[in-house]
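Chain A, query sequence.
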Amino acid sequence: MHIVASGAGASVPPAVPAASRPLRAAPHGPPARHTIAVLQVEQILLGPRRLGCDIDALLRRAGIPAALLQSPSARVSEDQFAALMRAMRRVTRDEFWGLLNRPLAPGVFAQACRALIHCATLEDALRVGLQQYRLHLHDFVPRLQQHDGRATLLLLPRAPATPCRLYAESTFAFQAYGVANWLAARRIPLAGVDLAAPPPAPRGSARRSDTERVFNTQVRYGQPHTALHFDAAWLRLPVVQDAASLQAFLRDTPRNLLTRYRDDSCLAERIRRHLRGHLDGELPSLEQMAETLRLTPQTLRRRLRDEGRGYQSIKDSLRRDAAIGFLEHTDLPLQQVALRVGFSEPSTFHRAFKKWTGVAPGEYRQRQMMGCAA
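Chain A, predicted structure.
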């Protein structure tokens, strides 16, 4: 992550110090990029479905096998998800893909960003951007509030709480957060996230973990309003982007909103990078990882809990994402894939993969190939 120092006189909360022993992944580790729950695909397709769009055609444009939607635990790549967002925007002519009662005309996002780069501070930029969006949004009203040293990006509803509106609010909050990180050229730590959307069903726990991973904080569901909370001191950060960097930013949106300022310094991501170099063997226990980090097991559990993560879930998601990467991008036999992600018995790997994604690894690869050939 590229970090630009704040201007003279700016006071921002100090960064959490890294553990005394740094963790590094092996230079030739397996393909283990983060993936996205197919339940997120289902959610983002709510708008195009409401408009009567050809869903299969949209999925083909994004390289997503339609058969994956039949497996609630399946995953897609970040590139596929970004390609789906671009395809939906072109087809619906709406930057919120039919989720809202009135379309948001293409170009609003770029126009707002052009205004933001001329602001002096992050606070100025957020207020300008939210004011512009209030001219276009009719289902909810975004506002920036400050109280007792805490800043809150608050979305006040003006339309019935339909699944479409609730997902649109979550999307707006995520995109606003991504833009704020880009404007300051650093990731702004959140103190908490409130979502008006109901909590995912038990089978949707992957969607919940995705949301908490993206925001890197505890997420509360079923709240009266969707809101992001953070220390108000971050509002004093200077805007460091200009017209040149804006052009590159817009060219790679929305993918950069998914990946650009991911918090690679957070404890869960550092552990994931370390474990990546040990996937073909037995992964360290929590106690061993705590010793490597020079933390007590209790402290490690608490810090991961503060990030909305668990040690076992980090190990499982890494193995799952690595396996998906091998299945999608290599011709390795399934037995070799199993060994590469730490399973000595193919049958054990089959059971674990089916638990993670809802389908067996061979079927997953076949569906992926069918989607690419369509």
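The chain has a mean pLDDT of 84. Residues 320 and 352 are 9 Å apart (CA to CA).
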